[in-house]
Amino acid sequence: MLVREMTTTELSIAKGFCKTPGSRSRNEGDFSGEQFREDVLAPIVTDVLRDGGLLFVDLDHTYGYGTSFLEEAFGGLIRTNVATGPELHRILSFKSDQEPYLIDEVWEYIDEAEALRSKLRN
Amino acid sequence: MRRQLVDFAGGAFIGAIVGWIAKTIGGSVSYFTLGREISLVELATLLLTAYAALILFRSAERVKYADQLRKDTLLRRLESVRSASKRSAELVAADHSPTLVEVTSASKAVGTEMQLLKSAFARLDVTIESEAIDKAEKALRVQHRLMTYTPPGKSAPDSPLRVVSNQVLITAGRRREIESQCRVIDSLLFEIEAQIICF
Question: Which of A23, A75, A105 sits opposite B163 (nearest CB)?
Fold first, then answer.
């Protein structure tokens, strides 16, 4: 029997993107959620899904997040068909020691986007 | 509580030794003079009673002091949450369009202060009706959303909150919503304060 070991990719938003996350879309200013999703998050998620690994996202050490940034980054993965809600539930995990409630918030955005996607498909 | 138990155990142990010595040698040692003649056993009993009273007094004082210290710590933490929340809401006051970083940093400060308050409750082993804290936490999240959420998809020009070049532009209506949310948070924090004072 083949046992495949799952590799975990770690992504720190403060180190891998910026310490001052901005708003939702690129046209609203620098370091937007859209920019983060398109340039950083989506390529990693695609690789992780292809390789069957896991993705660990560290939300700490920034100057705080706007809710739009988080919604666009993570909910946007579903809207742009990079991944589905169940796929994200399977591969994603978060760390947010400084603001633990952000983790629930991100999952809410993912679930809301997935609910909307399912509704639109049916 | 543990320190009180140790005090009592220590007192009882010393008392037992003194009592045992007094009982052992009481009969053979000559009497002390204290207004009238009292036996060594009586003297030991007197000393033990005084010692027990002293321990009780010290324990009561210590409990009172520790409780006050815990209340002060929690009230200080609560005050930090209150001022952080106010600072955050003041950012969107009339005639002022803050940058997004200012708003997110202020919101993060509120979240961090709330976490510190929660961990202070846990660390100091103080339990209050958790509903108030949960409600306050949710209200702070709503405030965070009111101050930073723009709808997905196209950024609507008539959106109550827009971000232009990382600057937050808020309509008067949204400002009023934020102020009203701030009042909700205030009243929840007062509720928590009342519970801290009465615990």
Answer: A23
